[in-house]
Protein 1
Amino acid sequence: MSQQLGGQQVYILKEGTTRTRGKEVQRSNIMAAKAIASAVRSTLGPRGMDKMLVNQAGGDIVITNDGATILGEIAVKHPGAKMVIEVARTQDKEVGDGTTTAVILVGALMEQAESMLEQGIHPTVIAEGYRTGMEKALEIVNSLALKVDSSDRKLLIKIANTAITGKSIEQVKVKLDSIIVDAVMAVAEKADGKTLVDEDDVMIKKQKGPSMDDAELIRGVIIDKTRAHEGMPKKIVKAKVALIATPLEITKTQVKAKIKISSADQITAFSVQERESLKNLADRIISTGANVLLCQKGISDIAQFYLAKAGVLAIEDIPEKDMTYAGRALNATIVGKAEALTVKDLGMADLVEEDTEGKVTRISGCKNPKTTTILLRGTSDYLLDELERAVVDGTRVVMDALEDGTYVVGGGAVETELLMKIREFAQTVGGRVQMAIEAYASAYESIPRALAENSGFDPIDKLVELKNAHAMGKKNAGLNVYEGKIVDMLAEGVIEPLRSKRQSIQSASETAIMLIRIDDMMVSQSKN
């Protein structure tokens, strides 16, 4: 950027900086948002298609229809496109589901803005209309919310089912629904009349196996390690588990020291003393009644020998995260030193068993575990990864529903109701802002349209049928994507957490408002 000042150029921006202004930058941001929305549009709904993402540098392949995964894998340079992808990241982080819906909404809002800009409506007017529309949309969606009881397992299974339907694991979703809900309900805690669930309390482990049907819920933990010594038992029934954070070996001192040995007897005495110290550590553990030992550090050969002789199954070098998880599952205390271990510190489990095929150790049958593990099996890494994504989505939505105690219906029913109600509201506003609010309402057509398109039905016909049903007061009417009929989504069991819908409305609207208000974009080139 330069100006003539007394015949001399004045440089304001750094050399190499490119600047885009006015309608050009608005057009650029609109095209970027529409392109990102188009990339995931065909994945929406139970009959959405999958995407294959290939990393040519590493040769990695990802096959999925999960919006967050798709957008997380593709590399974009356009700043506006990055903002839209951030919507998906935020949605995934806050809710765990609804990423595709949020991104499609951003694209639709920007498309509506494009039409208004061509008519000469100022960006600030559009932004004002969109913000007013968002506030009304949140108010309407709250009024549509239904209550769910934290003990209503059947309803929670329907919520999990809605989240994982459409993934590449249709044949096992009935089994996975139950596993997901039972895993979350097991770790849910009540405090001050509210239900709280920590997503880290449900661990997901993957293991190659002959069938996806072998997925199971373990009321405990799986350690990716096996016993430290061949002489130790592979299986312990009615396990009493000790957890120790420090090594069971003679450690080096922190200061430099020299030991002068002048005879063979001194060498023998030194060795005997070391052996005796290690035996005392092992005996201390055995004396508490522990028959399983989880050690965060190493276990010396001598200590292993005495533990094996006493029939103790010991595992060494367990990562800190797994130790913490095991402690919560077993309701056990992780002690700093073996000498400090007491009976009260031990955890109880029905079974601790080494799985030689998977090279893991299972700790199951924990009493009132604070953590649970979902074990997934599949014939390939691609299938296991997609299984994991489906289960993560399912667990997150069940957690959301439990914590908030609210849900709404799916199948495009909420979006159609928003479309109708916001348009009615716009009539009461007047002026150019009314046009922006009406355009904001029209953006919600994009969701039922995409559902119809992805299911092979005419989107116009289905949208007309949906509007007619809602005009008659059928607020739960949505599209059955398998039969193409307009049905009651609540009766069909197609439901999702209120949090997911609120987050997608809010993040999509706020991002669109930010993009619309940009009229100047300056990109500086970094120098190596």
Protein 2
Amino acid sequence: MFTDCQGIPYPVFAKGEVTDCAFVVGAIPFGSVSLLKVRLESGSQEPAAGQFYMLHAIRSDVLLGRPISIYHSEKKADGSVELSFLILLKGKGTRELCSLEPGDKLNLIGPCGNRFPMPKSVVECARSACIETTEELNNGGFDTASGLLNHRRVLLIGGGIGVAPVAGFAETLPPKSYDFYASFKSGSYALENVKADKLVITTDDGSVGVHGMLPAALTEDTLRAGNYSEVFACGPTPMLAYIQKICQAVGVKCWLSMEAHMACGVGVCLGCVIDTTEGKKRCCKEGPVFDGDILIFKPVTEVAGIKVQPRREPLAADVQPDLSVNIGGVTLPNPVIGSSGTFGFGVEYKTLFDVNRLGGISSKGLTLEPRQGNDGVRLHETPSGLMNSIGLQNPGIPHFIEHELPEMLKLKPIAIANLSGSSLETYVEGAKLLDATEVPLIELNISCPNVSAGGAAFGMTCVGAAQAVSAVRAVTKKPLIVKLTPQSHELNQVALSCIEAGADAISLCNSFQGIAIDIERGVPVFEKLKAGFGGPAVRPMAVRLVYEVVEAINQLPAEKRVPVIAIGGIATWEDAVEFIMAGASALQVGTNTFANPNTMIEVIDGLAAFMKRKGYHNIEEMRGIIQK
């Protein structure tokens, strides 16, 4: 066991076992907060009030542990320690923690950070009674009521899930030695162990206690009337800023527990710094509990020069958002398209889910002549994506027109023919054949990373891209989407060259290139050495490329601008919203369909629900909102 000079435990790496995990009664909506109990092995250090742990399930799909404050800790008869955590369901990591079951294993780093300092009034009372520990105070070694009669009380405040560490701190204080304010959006929870002299609950919806948020019950006048010596609080940043403000106005000391994104929990990554009058301080090391007087709260009105979006009212119950988008004069019922190379011709997935709900389907990459594709290994899974070296295996355009296209056209989604080639001549001949069909859109693929000739060679330079687009444009009147490669060092200019040459839309980005090595044999996995790479790992890079290309297109006169279709690592509706806010008009889902065939349906439904909740009537209202 390691502690500092004040007796605060240092963090260690430990393994724990889940003893219980259940939804918290009183949290609204039910299921939004879970109580997770974890037992540490015998001899483990008990945490101090205010500290936290980094929790990471051993069987996990997330990279980092999640910082969770201690709600309650208990030393068991066998010497083990049981820790209790309140977990608010927010994202993938917390959803994973809330789904744990008894017997599941956890990796823990902790206890991390500092603790809430013991109130001076309690310390002074203990000294006057010759009592050395607060445990003695709580166990009858001191008459709390009479002992604190001549001392000012302290005030504890918890907001939302921030009630957890404050309620844990309350357990270390003598009963009736403090007042407690708890503020929630709806309902109330985690107050079972609070033994306050006065307990005040506020709820934004009025479901419990005072109707309103914290200011509805706690003001400067309230602080003065309470004659408080110190305030201890944890909760949302706006609430803490308000507490700091009224405490400074009244001249009451406040201690505020902060939170920040972090990776390590031990002061190494420097990702969790908090602005203070003494410089940037680490939330995980110098915090999470800070002297309120040194904290600097900056109102967030813009990020990276972009204004924070004002709150919009949700759409009325009887109003549904319009998800339709226009690509090259063709209306898609929604912006979700099955990506070329990952969705065949659409009919293959008919028995797995309702493909007719999609906005469009981009066919397997098509060449004039049939192709058998590459030899050797074609697929290689990575922890965060999939590498492929298929090599454009396809039946050829004549066969597609006679057999596969009629089946695609029977489906409701807009059919898109993905046209590739090994030479400019084969592109042109293929385009001529497709122009004579009823296919509504052509996606010109000048970016395939897995073929020796043609493919990405045309999309690497402005000259090559313009040459390919001009040649195809000359032989077809079909709306033309041009699919670009992320490998080009002049991607923005390539996109603009394609538009100048006649592209009606841009899709990007095709697969990134990577190399995989078979370490047992000491040879490359793929016969062509390099292979295409897609999946969740590429998404942040793809979002950047989409943002930059849209930014370049926005410099053109309005009549020359074309829509951009985003591709790259989309697995959830949240990913789709990111691309749309970056400027994309539509999006293609690829790799994740292999992991979850329902991905695109979930994206469509999630996108619609998000738009309704956020008050967006159509895609265009939120498209490109982060563009300066």
Protein 3
Amino acid sequence: MIELRNIHVTYDDAAAPVLDGIDLTLDEGELVLVSGRTGVGKSTLLGVLTGLVPRFSGGTLTGDVLLDGTSIIDTPPRERAHVIGYVGQDPAAGFVTDTVEEELAYGMEQLGVAPDTMRRRVEETLDLLGIADLRARDLRTLSGGEQQRVAIGAVLTTHPRLLVLDEPTSALDPTAAEDVLATLTRLVHDLGLTVVLAEHRLERVVPFADRIALLTGDGGLVVDEPATVLATSPVVPPIVELGRAAGWSPLPLSVREARRHARHLRVLPAPEEHPATGGEILLTAQGLVVTHGRHVAVRDVDVELRAGHVTALMGRNGSGKSTLIWTLQGAHERRSGSVAVDGADPARLAADRRRAHVGLVPQTAADLLYLETVGEECAAADRGSDAGPGTCRALLDRLAPGIDPRHHPRDLSEGQRLALVLAIVLSTSPRVLLLDEPTRGLDYAAKRQLAAIVRDLADDGHAVLVATHDVEFVASVADDVVVLAEGEVVSAGRTREVVAASPSYAPQVTKILGAPWLRVDEVVAAMEAAR
């Protein structure tokens, strides 16, 4: 159906091509997962399919893109839209109307679809995606999972043959992510739609994929069935990492398959839970109530953040995690309750003093970037935090190595931008660090580096609060977990206790071996000790 032939993409200031001689054929009715390290060119590859590269990205594109044997390399995105639909990393950024029903109809209006056909397609799409009850809802009031499904629906009403998605589950809680992926699988199986998606959280997507297209980092592409690619890939989910360590063949791609292999591992001695150490309380919040208009976003919440502890803040989309974090930082007005950091209320401090007490990395990390080059951003961070020259750059290289200091921050990939903002905020070494979805756009290697930095900060006497949907990251770094629902704390305790009790928030190793197992390295250590 769609074929890429000998695709080369080079950006003007890059020493080597991002894509170098790429060939890829997409067949009708398959789901292809695009994988690879942060910044290797996944979004670029998707942009070649949609026509956004190089028209809106710059650079040079050579090679050919064929649709049913006919070249569309020079066809602009608007003339591909009826065949190739695209949903970006931030679906809400693409909304152009006010309500769900209007958004579903908008694309058809631009294509000149007849009104009676538009009405029928809107109804079909509402039923297909299970969002009929959202028909009249204001788009701004939707949860992340609902926004994602509406964005997909707005593309589907134009009846494309290929659906291209860039990290469709990165901002979703585990349940919402499963719903979106189940919807995509249904479209592939029942309607013959071809789906291409780029995603870092492979543990979510691999069980649904027919093939994996792995970008190798040197401009190349390896395409094959998931088990074949993952056998040698440097980017693998925990379930495959466990399978490799245990020598399982074929490698399991789902929890169900892994549980069948894992019977002999269940006799291993379980990891011990070390008692919590009582570090100094650095932040105390009591009775927090925060409202958005008439809606109560945070309701009577108490929080203590201790030195030496990493606390994970979890909960479904819309549960109040971001609101709580901004309130703790002092930037969000609260209706009642108190917050104290080192005896001071951050809401009453000037911005520069507040940052020295409480550092915050927001979900939209790029909002903190304002200079012309990566090098200038790092130098400004060092000056602003009175850190030694090169401090910010060293942190950046741990998270996303090799970024050219001459690059404009807005030209970086989503993951690279996040890594830069993390480095800027971490260079101030605030006593309390708040991170809102910090792993969005980061591959497994970058997340391990982030976990190491967060752990080092905690061990150095800092308190860290991480709001995240990434259960694997929580398993790797968090001491404690707080779960919100409808703005209230519904569960709190040690990580092993909280995640093991929740099917939604349990990491893959826990699902395979049961509590108290959390991580692959724990299993590997137990296997080595048993030899």
